[in-house]
Amino acid sequence: MNAIKRFGSAMIVPVLMFAFFGIVLGFATLFKNPAIMGSIAKDGTTWFKIWSVIEAGGWTIFNHMEIVFVVGLPLSLAKKAPGHAALAALMGYLMFNTFINAILTQWPHTFGANLEKGVENVTGLKAIAGIETLDTNILGGIIISSIITWIHNRYYSKRLPEMLGVFQGLTFVVTISFFVMLPVALITCIVWPTVQNGISSLQGFIIGSGYIGVWLYHFLERVLIPTGLHHFIYAPIEVGPVVVNHGLKAEWFEHVNDFARSTKPLKEQFPYGFMLQGNGKVFGAIGIALAMYSTTPKENKKKIAALLIPATLTAVVVGITEPLEFTFLFIAPYLFVLHAILSATMDTLMYGFGLVGNFGGGLIDFFATNWIPLAQNHWLTYVIQIIIGLAFTGIYFVLFRFLILKFDIPLPGRKKESDDIKLYSKKDYKSKNEDKGSQSVAGNEYEEKALYYLEGLGGKENIKDVTNCTTRLRLTVEDIDKVEDSDYFTHNQMAHGLVKSGKNVQVVVGMSVPQVREAFENIVNN
Q1: Pair (256, 403) in one structural domain
Q2: What is the CATH number of the domain that holds 463?
């Protein structure tokens, strides 16, 4: 299970980049639409050409998703020298596809794929980095990257005889990968047609599942967040081949100009309701925050507002909900389950009223990739979305407030201790470190957090490995008993929460987790 969670967190490294490129495509769609921009945006104008160039850049990640995942996964999965692991994975993937190309060229009739016809209009074939090969999409990239990373972790540090020293490290990993990729390529040529048929059947099942499938998808995407397994729910659908061959995000952006110009209902043009989870992040987060604030004693309202406002804005604007959700997840997990149920129900209801699109993030996604470019012909759909969303904000508020008061849930600001929401200064923090006999770090806030976490996690000797996802620092420790409880992290406002599961620990850091992880690893390795 630890390996699965670690793999899930590694998936987020490439996935995080999709948001930016999606926004670029959204604005390009807007600024190339003559109905919105006027004659300046007509085909052939300088304005149109400039935005066509920008739009082409926005397609970079969608046109090369396989390579992005191949290179991105080792950055988190490699136990040492992640840069070398990423290069080895890229080399392995190129060799894999080159071998497939050679096999299909030499035995076209045996494998039923004739590359002489080209790959542009042939289903199941694709040119990857200029290599005509089988279209194994990101699934193939993930598998190959995982194999190469395993080889890297096992053999990168292996010492060879002095006379073969030049082949140590990266070269040794690539050498082994060469001989591994040849049989893997051959096996792929044999079994991939069957895999493609299976994917096609899965696509038909998912699409045919209707409202039940939409509700279940959004419920699991939300309720599995504490485990880190939610990446396995949304990634295969949004950027993988589970619903359409190259992922729903690419499908949406490929046709968004057509959707914007057409007056047909969006649901008829794009009949997939699987990227609506952002509604729970926007409308649900507001209701939750208001309920928490309204149930806080008067003397603590200002302090709790200082915590809730940035956490809620993070959820609403960019779609990162952990800072808010982790304030109540471990104190009252049934509130989180209720949150998942309400969010899934809201998304499914919106889908029933015709809402589809790229609504996986926060308001930035809403405006840039949906509302602004498509509002002219589809404004009524978005008005209905907002009405339903605000209604659910009220439902969230009423239910959360009732349960918090009914069961006297000790959320931040409601505890009896007077210091439970104290905002500690850097001076307090450094003083605490000195009292413990620790070395004070004269660096930035990331280094300070990293050192503070390290002490709470039992010191360098207790750290086995470390990685991160969007907002959490994920670690495996030698002795879980040496790890402090959640109060150590949350009382000092240094983290939003702590998750323990066996020897696996997650520190909920927030959006600065990549920088904190880098500082953490520097401290551990020095």
Answers
A1: yes
A2: 3.30.1360.60
469 is catalytic: yes
Going by C-alpha positions, the residue among 359, 361, 384, 347 that lies closest to residue 215 is 347
Owning domain of residue 508: 445-525
> How many separate domains does the chain show?
2
| Residues linked to residue 235 through DSSP beta bridges, in sequence order | none
In a shared domain, residues 369 and 464: no
Among the listed residues 308, 469, 494, 508, the single catalytic one is 469
Which amino acid appears at position 447 of this protein? E
Same domain, 487 and 389: no
| Exposure of 522 in the CB half-sphere (CA atoms within 13 A) | 14
Q: What is the pLDDT along the chain (526 residues), one digit of tens a residue?
A: 566 667 766 777 787 788 788 888 888 888 888 877 888 988 899 999 999 999 999 999 888 989 999 999 998 888 888 899 999 999 999 999 999 999 999 998 888 777 777 777 667 888 999 899 998 888 899 999 999 999 999 999 888 887 887 788 999 999 999 999 999 999 999 998 888 888 778 778 887 889 999 999 999 999 888 776 787 788 888 888 888 888 899 999 989 889 988 999 999 999 999 999 999 999 999 999 999 999 999 988 988 888 889 889 988 998 888 778 877 877 788 999 999 999 999 999 999 999 999 999 899 889 989 998 899 899 999 999 999 999 999 999 999 999 999 999 888 777 654 444 433 333 443 444 444 444 434 357 888 888 999 999 999 999 988 888 777 888 889 999 999 988 888 766 688 788 888 888 888 887 788 888 888 988 888 7
| Distances 357 to 289, 386, 417, 489 between C-alpha atoms, Å | 26, 14, 46, 38
Entry pTM: 0.73
Q: Is residue 376 part of a domain?
A: yes
- 252 and 395 part of one domain: yes
Residues 6+ apart with CB under 8 A from 265: 354, 381
Considering the domain architecture, whether residues 303 and 412 belong to the same structural domain is answered as yes
Note whether 259 and 388 are same-domain residues. Answer: yes
